[in-house]
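Much of what follows relies on a compact textual record of a protein's fold. A record is reproduced here so that you can trace the correspondence yourselves:
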Amino acid sequence: MAASMKRKAFDTSENEAIPIVSFSHGALNVSKEGNGDNLPTFKLLKHSKSDIVKRKQWRILTARGQKIDYVGSNYGELALKASSTSKYMVGVLDKRTGKMQAYDAQLFRLHPWIQRDETQKQKKDDTLTFLEKTHRLTENFGSKRGKRSLNSLIRNKVSQEFIEKAVSEAVENAAVDLPETSDYVQLESEHFQLLPPCNKDASAPADIYKLEDILPLELMDHLDQKGDSLLNASVEEIEKWQKEESCPFYVLDHLPLSDYAFSEDKDLSVKRKAAILAYITVLMQLFITKKRNLESLTMLNEIPLSIKDYIVSKFLQESSTPSGSIKRSLTKLSKDKVMIHILLLALHVDSFRTKLDCLQRDTGIPPKRMLQYVRSFGGKPRLLKKHEMESTDIVGTKKYLMELKGPVDLSPKKVLRQRRSQTR
């Protein structure tokens, strides 16, 4: 400890109580005469100015040692409880006269004082929210029921960062699912285009949307096996497919394909028509499925790998997962693109004049929505006239026919409209 103890006459005129000091974890090594080595230096502090009477009695006693400092007070947490309930006196004996004089005294218990950065501690505490502080109190001092509730809350808690990533993925993955009240759907975006390449000024219908831009010719050859099953289908097989509803009504309406063997369509052979109908069958299954993830689209496992890769890259949209990987899924925007390609392929099969009743029956699309699809790529829908309807058609029902003639108009008023919200 620091310097030696200095004796100083106590001024009794100020009515100041004599401090009696004890240490929390030891005692000073002092002789009866008051001498010792490395004794601390004591200092008594009081308020210099205070309007509150109680605070005028507050005292702080410090002891500065060689290695460590001590502090004590007669108020607050460091004050001795006995000081407030008892009165202490110090007697000073005069050896010459044999008389003793009594003085008021107050007790101080000194504790080691370690300097620390209060601002840093306060800053650390401020990082905790009120809820986190409450949870800490419950964890340390709460009842069993409170602790069980806290543990249940922690187990069911989901990371805020994960929620944000999941929401971001959902918005990106199903962007077209949300704006049900919007008037239009974009036919083009930076990464996804609904329409195939279009020559708006072409006069011949086959040149407006070329078949090789919808289904490449090299891939059409990979559909020969599927197409041959339609081309060589017997009457019994066709009736079986019709009974089991395992084949689209639009495709069944074109069977048997032997009836088209002597057709005047020079642009498309019967074998090519069979391959296109097989491709339309796959697209129909893709359109009506309620599954979204690529892994769950089992109908793609039944077709050649080259056709599957083409469909995945052409129709499924990419999105990023919270882990950073890329996945493909079938969104509503993807289904819009599938439906447009089905209609364009049907126009090529039917020499650009296609009845819509079978397509509506296969897809479950209402007539108004189907007409919007037709207008989206520049097609012209119209009601069938009486002499164009078949004998099996119910009298009074409305049936539509779509045609494609050049040049086409793709102005915004023709763009595919979305269904308006029913809650409007």
Notes: The CA atoms of residues 93 and 100 lie 4 Å apart. The first strand starts at residue 18 and ends at 23. The two ends are 85 Å apart (CA to CA).
